[in-house]
Amino acid sequence: MPVVRIQMYAGRTKEQKAELAKAITEAVVRIAKAPPEQTWVVFEDVPRENWAIAGVLASERS
Amino acid sequence: MPVVRIQMYAGRTKEQKAELAKAITEAVVRIAKAPPEQTWVVFEDVPRENWAIAGVLASERS
Amino acid sequence: MPVVRIQMYAGRTKEQKAELAKAITEAVVRIAKAPPEQTWVVFEDVPRENWAIAGVLASERS
Amino acid sequence: MPVVRIQMYAGRTKEQKAELAKAITEAVVRIAKAPPEQTWVVFEDVPRENWAIAGVLASERS
Amino acid sequence: MPVVRIQMYAGRTKEQKAELAKAITEAVVRIAKAPPEQTWVVFEDVPRENWAIAGVLASERS
Amino acid sequence: MPVVRIQMYAGRTKEQKAELAKAITEAVVRIAKAPPEQTWVVFEDVPRENWAIAGVLASERS
Question: ipTM of the predicted structure?
Answer without folding.
Answer: 0.97
